[in-house]
Structures are given as structure tokens and as C-alpha cells.
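The following record pairs a protein chain with its ligand, iron/sulfur cluster.
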Amino acid sequence: MIVSKQKNREELLSLLDGLTSLFLVGCSACATVCKSGGEEEVFRMEEWLTSLGKKVTGSVVIDSPCNVNRTARDLRDHRVQVEEADAVMVLACGAGVHSVVLKSGKRVIGALDTLFLGNTIRNGQFGEKCSLCGNCLLNETGGICPVTLCAKGLLNGPCGGMEEGKCEVDRELDCAWHLIYENLKKQGRQDIFTRTVPPRTGGKNSHPEN
Ligand code: SF4
Ligand code: SF4
């Protein structure tokens, strides 16, 4: 899931300068789970904008606005309200914002900060376990990602600062390479630990242009 949070009100206020009317778009998937852009948050945003004297011409909570075609369809269904607004405010991740940019033809205000790809630990609590590097090492590391979980992103074992399995950057946290070793040991695959992973070039990381 993509974890996001709402921008603070001061920042939003500066983005609203000169705008008198807005159409709101929320997300019924990730942003609803994160409580950053679901029905409730869209409703609260509308209340806040109205209290500032802005007109909210309408709103829609799209089932995954990262889906471009679904976003196009839902914006079409609200065409008159979208047209009436000076701008569309989007309470969704960056991918959702992009869909609205593509399909609305309007000025778009992104109301959220997109944080990371998250595992849900429990309701409302998320952990980052993968940084989407595009060159996955998990088969070499017992399923634990050093790119994300090692404070230095080290690829070939722990740094000299590890102490009793804890990270030198924060002694409250387990060293990623300690976890990797323990996991490989459980799996009877410690031999993998002696392999050397070549330096990363970033060449395999794909960033499509469209
Ligand atoms: S190595 Fe880590 S950051 Fe890269 S794809 Fe695998 S889990 Fe994600
Ligand atoms: S102690 Fe472990 S997790 Fe922390 S920076 Fe060093 S290798 Fe990375």
C-alpha cells in the first residue's frame, strides 16, 4: 500500500492563494486506509475550505485514482462541477494526482505527501520494508531488504558499528544485517552470506516516461 499523509494547513493555504472554487477528489483505496484522503477526510477538507470562504463545487472519492481510466470516467461523471472549479484538489498519492492532471485539464492541487510503500502492521500503523529500487536483492538476503532497513543501505554485510545485533545509528533498532544473518541461518542458507553483491549502478531501475 502507498502510505500518505495530508500536507499541513499552512502549506495548503499557500497553495490556495488566488483560488475561489475547488472540486475535491479522494481515494477509496490506500488514502482511505491511511486516513489521509477517504470520504471522511474529503468531507473535513470541504468543511475547512468552506470556512475559508472557498466554494466547493463538488467531490468524488475514486476507487484507486492511480487508475487513469477510472479517474477519467469519474471526472466525466462530474464534468459540470469540475469545469465550474478554478482547480481540482486531490487527496491521493502522487500517482492519483498525476491521473487527475492527465484527465481533468484543470489546475491540480496535491493535498497529500506520498511517503512510502508500506506494510500494514496494525490499523493505522505502517512499516517501510521496500524502497522500490527496481533491482531486488531479497533472494540473496533471506527476504529482508538492506537497501531499506540498513541505515546506510549497505549491500554486503554489517558496518563496524553494529553492537549485539543493534544498529549504530539507533541502538533501539535491530541491525538489518543481523536480521538477514539470523534469517538465513533459520533457512540453513548461511553460505549465501559469504557472496558479494556487486555495487549498484541504478541501471536496472526503470522509470517509464509516460
Ligand atoms: S532490494 Fe529492497 S528496495 Fe530493492 S526491490 Fe528488493 S525489497 Fe525493494
Ligand atoms: S549497524 Fe547494521 S543496520 Fe546499522 S548502519 Fe551498520 S550495517 Fe546498517
